[in-house]
C-alpha cells in the first residue's frame, strides 16, 4: 500500500483542464483505474476487477442481506422525518415539490451510516482498488421519492471534484448501496461503459457558489451533446437495475446520470465516495472558493480503518 506524501502539482500544467479552457473535447485518461498490483489478493472475484477496469463500474448483487437493508431503510426514513423539521445546507430539496432530494455528510452525522462507511466489505474494496489508505471525500443519502423527483443530468464526478474541490488525480471510487429496488422505470443510475478512459472537457465559466444550484440541477460541468454522443457510440448505456441490497461500484470519472422518477416507487440509496489519502484535495483547479465541508472533506480527513459490524443487533 502506497504511503507517499501528498501529491504536489504544478498548477500551471493542469493535466485535466476544464471550464474556461477552450472548446469541449475528450482527453485520454492519464491515471490507472485499478491501482492494486496483480500480486495483491482481491476481496472480490478477479473477473469482477477486470470488469471494473474495462467498463469503469460493476454491480455486486445481493451484497447486503435483507435484514441489513431493512435496518438501513429504517434509519433512512428516520433521518428523512427529522430533516423535514430543520433547515440546513446539508439538506437538498427538490425545486418544485420541496421533497428531500439528498442529505449530505451522513458518515459524520449518523452513527449507523458512519459504521457503514467503515464496513470492511466496501471500505476494504475501496482500499484495494485505490491501493492506499482511504477517507470519505463525500457521503450522502439520495431519496429520489416517487412521482416528482427530478433527474441527475449526465456528468463525471471527477470533473466537478477536480474543478470545484481540487481533487488532483483520478484515484477515487464511489460506492452506492441500493435501499430500494431499482427498476428501469423509476430513474435508475445509468452509466456509459468505457467512458472513464476519457476526460470530458466542459465549457463555460463556473459561477461563484455554483453548488447551491448544481445540487438541484447541474448546468456547468456537464458534457456537450457532441461529447456525450461520442462516448455513448463507443460504449452504449447501461441501466443499473436490480434489487435492494445490490452495490454499484463506479470509477470517479465514469459518465453517469439518472432520469426523473414519475412512478410511485422511490429509488433510495446510500452513497460513499472514497478518495486515496495520497490524493487528498488541494485548492480548486477552477480558481474557485472551496465548496463547504459537507460536500468535500477538506479539514476533517480521517483515514478509515475497515471493520466488521452487526447492524441487525440493535
Describe this structure in words.
There is one protein chain. With 314 residues, this protein is α+β, with helices and mostly antiparallel strands. The chain has a single domain, classed as Jelly Rolls (Sandwich). It has eight helices and 13 strands. The strands form three sheets. It has a seven-stranded antiparallel β-sheet with strand order 2-11-7-13-5-4-3. It is globular, with a radius of gyration of 18 Å.
Name the CATH architecture: Sandwich
As a percent range, the share of strand residues is: 15-25%
Largest sheet: 7 strands, antiparallel
List the total number of helices.
Answer: 8
Shape estimate: globular
Report the CATH topology name. Answer: Jelly Rolls
Class from helix and strand fractions: alpha+beta
Q: What is the domain tally?
A: 1
CATH class (first level) name: Mainly Beta
First CA to last CA: what distance?
35 Å
From N to C, what is the helix and strand string?
EHEHEEHHHEEHEEEHHEEEE
Q: What is the H level of CATH, i.e. the homologous superfamily?
A: q2cbj1_9rhob like domain
**In order across it, which strands form the biggest sheet?**
2-11-7-13-5-4-3
How many strands? 13
Give a summary of the structure in a few sentences.
With 314 residues, the chain is an alpha+beta fold. It has helices at residues 46-55, 66-83, 106-109, 111-117, 120-130, 157-165, 211-214, 225-235; strands at 25-28, 57-60, 91-93, 100-104, 134-142, 152-156, 172-178, 189-191, 198-201, 238-239, 247-251, 255-258, 269-276. The chain is 24% helix and 20% strand.
Please supply descriptive tags for the structure shown above:
314 residues, alpha+beta, Jelly Rolls, 4-stranded antiparallel sheet, 8 helices, 24% helix
Amino acid at each position: 500500500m502506497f504511503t507517499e506524501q501528498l501529491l504536489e502539482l504544478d498548477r500551471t500544467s493542469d493535466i485535466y483542464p476544464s471550464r474556461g479552457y477552450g472548446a469541449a473535447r475528450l482527453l485520454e485518461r492519464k491515471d490507472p483505474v485499478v491501482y492494486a498490483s496483480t500480486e495483491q489478493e482481491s476481496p472480490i472475484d478477479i473477473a469482477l476487477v477486470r470488469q471494473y477496469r474495462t467498463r469503469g463500474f460493476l454491480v455486486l448483487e445481493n451484497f447486503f442481506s435483507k435484514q441489513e437493508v431493512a435496518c438501513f431503510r429504517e434509519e433512512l426514513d428516520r433521518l428523512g422525518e427529522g430533516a423535514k423539521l430543520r433547515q440546513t445546507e446539508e439538506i437538498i430539496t427538490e425545486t418544485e415539490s420541496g421533497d428531500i432530494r439528498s442529505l449530505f455528510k451522513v458518515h459524520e452525522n449518523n452513527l449507523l451510516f458512519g459504521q457503514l462507511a467503515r464496513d470492511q466489505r466496501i471500505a476494504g474494496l475501496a482500499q484495494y482498488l485505490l491501493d492506499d489508505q482511504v477517507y470519505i471525500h463525500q457521503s450522502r443519502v439520495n431519496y429520489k421519492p416517487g412521482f416528482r423527483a427530478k433527474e441527475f443530468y449526465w456528468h463525471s464526478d471527477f470533473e466537478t471534484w477536480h474543478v470545484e474541490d481540487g481533487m488532483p488525480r483520478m484515484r477515487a471510487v464511489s460506492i452506492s448501496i441500493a435501499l430500494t429496488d431499482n427498476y428501469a422505470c423509476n430513474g435508475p443510475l445509468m452509466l456509459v461503459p468505457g467512458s472513464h478512459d476519457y476526460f470530458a472537457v466542459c465549457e463555460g465559466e463556473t459561477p461563484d457558489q455554483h453548488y447551491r444550484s448544481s445540487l438541484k440541477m447541474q448546468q456547468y460541468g456537464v458534457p456537450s451533446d457532441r461529447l456525450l454522443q461520442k462516448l455513448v457510440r463507443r460504449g452504449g448505456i447501461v441501466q443499473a437495475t436490480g434489487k435492494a441490497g445490490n452495490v454499484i461500484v463506479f470509477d470517479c470519472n465514469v459518465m453517469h446520470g439518472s432520469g426523473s422518477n414519475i412512478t410511485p416507487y422511490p429509488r433510495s440509496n446510500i452513497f460513499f465516495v472514497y478518495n486515496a489519502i495520497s490524493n487528498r484535495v488541494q485548492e480548486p483547479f477552477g480558481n474557485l472558493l472551496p465548496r463547504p465541508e459537507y460536500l468535500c472533506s477538506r479539514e476533517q480527513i480521517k483515514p478509515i480503518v475497515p471493520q466488521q459490524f452487526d447492524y441487525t443487533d440493535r
